[in-house]
Predict the structure.
Amino acid sequence: MILEKKRIKLNSLQSKTLVLLQVLARDPDSASPAGNGNEGDIRITRLPHAHGHHMHVGDYVVSSRDASGLNNKSVWTALSRKGLVRENWEQEIILTKQGLDFVTGLGDKFLTATDH
């Protein structure tokens, strides 16, 4: 009998938070390889801060409302439980290879390129 992998489901806020982490993971000013023995894991070294109703995430401008999951403990707990970030997210943010590769389908829906 072949066991099928359980499909990971994310709610809207979890998906938005994950796609922001994926963008940060690809930005050399915000991330570096984790060096934790798990190849493909990325350490997020800098989280963006909102100014006004938006924040800059890599080359994108994101609504502060869409990025609210970055400050939501329940979102972090869910992402950790699903294996998309490491469990010690309160001390350091490690995006797992699975989290980096996860397709949210949201990247082009709420990320807007910025020129400032």
Remarks:
- The chain has one domain: 12-113.
- The longest helix spans residues 12-25.
- Residues 12-113 form one domain.
